[in-house]
What we know:
The structure holds two protein chains of two kinds. Helix content of chain A is 29%, strand content 23%. Chain A contains eight helices and ten strands. Chain B has 23 helices and 17 strands. The longest helix of chain B is centred in the first third of the chain and has 26 residues, at 12-37.
Amino acid sequence: MTRIILSTGNIITGGPSIIRKPGAARSNLELINSLRNNFQAAQQDYAGSPTSSNGNKQENGHSAQEDSRPRIDAWTATEDSVLYIPRIDWTAAGLQEDRAQYEITVKLFFLPNTSVAKRAEFIDEALRLVTKELQVENIDLLIASFPGISFEGDCEWEADKINATMGNEQEEVVTWAALESLHEQGKVVRLGIAEFGSEKLQRFINQVKVPPAVDQINIKDCCSVPPPLTKLANSAGIELLTHGDCTDILPSGTLRELLGHGGQGAGILADDEKAQNGLQGNLIPQWVVKYTAFVNYRGVIENKGYFAGAELVNA
Amino acid sequence: MGLLALGTALDWPDAQKRAQQVREWGIKQLLEIWNKAKYKERDAMLWGDEVEYLVVRYSNEAPKVLLSLRQADILKALAADEELATKGGGVPDLQVVKPQGSNPLPVFHPEFGRFMLEATPGKPWGIGFKELLDVESDMKTRRRIAKEHMESEEYPITLTTFPRLGVPGVFTDPYYPPSGPKLRSQFVPDEIANPHIRFPTLAANIRWRRGRKVQVNVPVFHDVNTPNPWKDPTVNYDLHNWPEDDDVRNGAAPDNFIHMDGMVFGMGSCCLQITFQAKNITEGRKMYDQLSPLGPIMLALTAATPIYKGFLADTDVRWNQISRAVDDRTAEELGEKVSTVLDNITKTPSANEHQPLKESRWRIPKSRYASNSTYISTDPRLRPEYFDPNLVIDESIKAQLLEGGMDDLLATHFAHLFIRDPIVIFNEDLEELDLTKADHFENLQSTNWQHMRFKPPPAGSDIGWRVEFRPMEIQITDFENAAFSVFMVLITRAILSFDLNFYIPIVKVDENMETAHARDAVLEKKFYFRKNPFPNRTPRSTVGSNANSPIASRPATPVSPVEDEYALMTVDEVINGSKSEEHDFPGLIPIVESYLDSVNVDVQTRCELSTYLDLIRKRASGELWTAAKWIRHFVASHPTYKRDSVVDDEITKGLVSAVIDIGEREQAGRGWKGLNVPELARLLGQFRGGCGSNGVKRSSDEIN
């Protein structure tokens, strides 16, 4: 079994992958494209020769072609038996201004078909990476996104009803307890959840110690919030924030394509006859974390990126 | 701004003798400010908008609508309002206005035209997203307070220009005859200008320096019954009050142009200007450069000026008219033959390029009111090819600035602004140089009206480096004005966050500015715009210890010819994105939305912001009309319009009446449904309660 950490680096200045395609209300394109771009960039930067170090233009900008991919260990790294794809240059970590200038938001996606018992580990790992990347001690807002919940439908009243039956409440409450302890330790200032309709939210509030400060919802026409949800949010002091993430942000098939030998894949998996030393086994994405460092007084996003955790289980 | 300085304003011959002194002192003051503020850091994002109004006198009974010249009385009434003052509002030019409380009331300012009023928020706006939603209601409050201090038949309206300004006969209240000693206009009286000595002196000295009256010539719109060639029937060729009355006999009023001859025809226009505070000088310089190419796009998109002096013009925006209205260049500076005075529109500007200069220091290609002429950012992406190789600068001033420690780019910028003469000089200010003030610097800086303005921190204040975005035309409703203001704020945040790059050669920005004038340029014309606005990836090996720190890095990709970087795009492509074969520019609205996707915004705020973005999206796509197009349509469909380009008193009364009705409905928050105004839904769509029965009411409006 191999643990894998995927990362995008700072995507805020990373070009078009952060631009929403008109009409797409929610998607995972930002994550997928950013991962793909970062893999390709790392392959270029770390490819074989050290010529890219300074000033000299690389002759071959397409060194990541099918047949001439750089060695996997050239652009990935293994530390403490975790495989980092790509390797992470931590010397670039940190923020430019004082911590107090920032609002740091983290959204942690627990993916479907993963062990609920391991969620505490996922939380620790995700926060370890984010706090290392941003060089901060704590997070201002952590939003938990549980699997199997969405808030969709043309009629938002109806969506609210359907939503009430989604997800696994018991698992969500148990996971929440782990987050509450982070809150108590001061590592996370505010906690939030995503995609909770009014009924689900009310039941959740009744069962947890620290009620969520934020409920992040995606509504196609964002102006039609179901009135019961607005009412509950107002009375419970919960902020309703918007988001554009899709429910299953990193399906295993998508991850397999990203790392495989197909058209734009990174060529890491042993899924091709030509693949040498490729990774073998069953690839299971476990969690994704999105982080954003926003300079409050200037309205500028300085850093945004993703980490994703996956497991490669031997068949 | 503060209390308007009083003193003895010098006539041009005297002012001219002291011009060099003012420039030298101005440069010393600039260096003082620069040295104090160049390391100023971490200023918050604050911003402000300025809304300008025309004050009209209108009643249903009166046969025509007039411009009210009671600016001074209205300002006095505002200054005398104790409640306004105790809540932080007032008139800074007449009283000491102290910001009170967290939401001070707005402040009011005089403008050049005596029929104008300017209003600004009581304190600068921040960048809290909820705060952005206060802009519209604050604008409405400003309009309400302005109206409350007017007579019952006076109204503050936000048309860019008054359609009947300068027509023969009565168009002001009270009436004054034209042809006064200061403006010497055959169309407007001196009393059309704010009587504060600064303003008539400005107008007189521009004329004096120029050696003749300003020539504000706008091509006339040829309708089916408009003669061709068309001769402006309001021009009087037999006037002999002033030497300048010869101008029209010397060809100042060519065929097919609406001819105007006074500063007020330009400076009497209302605009929507936005000023942003940057975190430091570097960010300010970057914003200045990156917003510059957006200028012509936003000008075309806000087009609202199709009528001049009672005629339909063949252009849609005010810009060039203001440019010509304050053009103080001499014939020699214009490159004309010094002996014969020719109209500069009908001749080629370079006809006399090689004739040696006798009196002037330079030939100057642009008016002091014009699009930007240079870039100033320290961004490594600023390529030498983007600069204008023919930029005129004062080399000795540049040398002084370099000597004083300023870098080349910024020194070049100010050495370009300082090729101009100061126009209004007060004798009292020339006695002693006060380095704690900025008056001499501001004298030049504030009479360089470019489409962007780079503003150093005011002397003795805690304010930071600022950038002013100046090209937008005022819109009829506060909803629209808020929408464009908020859009500009959001696009600056996206530019800084995503490190966007809109650079194109500055001469292409000039060309775009001209293009923006065309009738319906927003739909019919194409503009040079950069195809790929994204930063080049910084290879890992050059990443320093700080993720975003400015790295003087080489571009990661081979440098391509500058010509390959930009393409001709429609406003729709620039705003909403394109998918042409040549480029896939993502569009400013999708860029702003992606920015909003990455920040924490509550549902209702996001919804309200989307409403603003929707308006801009629809104006760019043509689904909704610009004010210019709507006004043209209003005129064309008016029963008294004879399809001869003439906009008479009755049409003007109808137009102003419609605008007043629209404004009153907006104040009351009642929407525009049922108003008997033709095609209003094409202008305002279903926003803010909607306009009519057609179309589905957007759910976004239900919560407003």
